[in-house]
Amino acid sequence: MPSSDTPGLPPPRPIPLKDRAALVFIERAQLDVDDGAFVAIDAEGVRTHIPVGGVACLLLEPGVRASHAAVALASRAGTLLVWVGEGAVRLYSAGRPGGARADKLLWQAQIALDDSARLRVVRRMYELRFGEAAPQRRSVDQLRGIEGVRVRETYALLARQHGVKWQRRAYDVSDWAGADLPNRCLSSATACLHGLTEAAVLAAGYSPAIGFLHTGKPLSFVYDIADLWKLQTAAPEAFRIAGQAAKGRLSMPVERAVRQACRDSFRRTGLLAKIIPQIEEVLSAGDLPPPAPPPEAAGPAFPDPEAGP
């Protein structure tokens, strides 16, 4: 059977995740493939090409129809497809970009099932998040409560800095428009961060569901890792945009403004290049050695280029 690859050309190599753009939102369009790249076709027939191999995550909002060819291309390129609700506040489903290896997943599960190792991981996450050691002799549940208090205090501080009226974190996923302005901004920013983090977690070969501080949710580990960066990236941008909107300084819907702000923040901070190494750092705090991969194990889906001499 003849090869589908162009004669004389080497097979395409996935771009390392850390070198990709963060994420792209698509709404009310037909997602298909044209000349080996994604193309989004809107109701007026306007075609927008998307360099799929250079994008970590595509978030598909209501009104998007994805062809079989588009999903297959995303799988080959290692680009995560996430189907989200209006404003990206609800996540319905996600594709797997490839690269999951049993040795990584088994290591993650081994640590999560060991109470002492899990506590060490949670303490390390606390230290990374707040820049100080976690209080001694505290359980995971107690640390979760302490973190919750500190996050609420940070939200209140950000609201004051940007002149935003803030009461508390409150929203109903079934009633997006019913939430107040700062909560809608924060939900949109968090959805951006979660999409990017899930792409990194899956590409590195871990399970989004096996969490340490968060448990019992399909994206528990995604929430764990995203929270390490939330107060540095997504939350400040959400309150900044909310402040601009409250003063009538926005020329676009707040959700769109938040997405653009998060995109710029993720790029400015080099977030995508930092997530996977930090996953390794967090899990290493469990002090349980990772299992050695068997000789027949597949290699990394997105290997880094070998360093030169």
Number of strands: 8
Which regions have little confidence, pLDDT < 50, spanning 5+ residues? Answer: 1-9
**What pattern of helices and strands is seen along the backbone?**
EEEEEEHEEHHHHHHHH
Strand fraction band? 5-15%
Distance between the termini: 41 Å
Which CATH architecture of the largest domain would you pick?
A: Up-down Bundle
Biggest sheet, open or closed, and with what strands and sense? 4 strands, mixed
Q: Helix/strand-derived class?
A: alpha/beta
- Largest sheet: spatial strand order: 1-5-7-8
Look up the CATH topology of the largest domain: Four Helix Bundle (Hemerythrin (Met), subunit A)
Q: From the alpha-carbon coordinates, what is the Rg to the nearest angstrom?
A: 20 Å
Mean pLDDT: 84
Classify the helix fraction into a percent range.
40-55%
What's the tally of helices? 9
The count of domains is 2
CATH superfamily of the largest domain: CRISPR-associated endonuclease Cas1, C-terminal domain
CATH class of the largest domain: Mainly Alpha
Please state the overall shape, judged from the principal axes of the Cα atoms: flat
Can you put this structure into words, describing what you see?
This protein is an alpha/beta fold. It folds into two domains: 17-94, CRISPR-associated endonuclease Cas1, N-terminal domain (Ribosomal Protein L15, Chain: K, domain 2); 102-284, Up-down Bundle (Four Helix Bundle (Hemerythrin (Met), subunit A)), CATH 1.20.120.920. It has nine helices and eight strands. It has helices at 68-77, 102-113, 115-130, 140-161, 181-203, 220-230, 234-246, 254-269, 271-284; strands spanning 21-26, 30-34, 37-41, 47-50, 55-60, 65-66, 80-84, 91-94. The strands form two sheets. The chain has a four-stranded mixed beta sheet with strand order 1-5-7-8. A hairpin with a 5-residue loop joins strand 3 (37-41) and strand 4 (47-50). Helix 5 packs across helix 6 (220-230). The protein is flat and about 60 Å long.
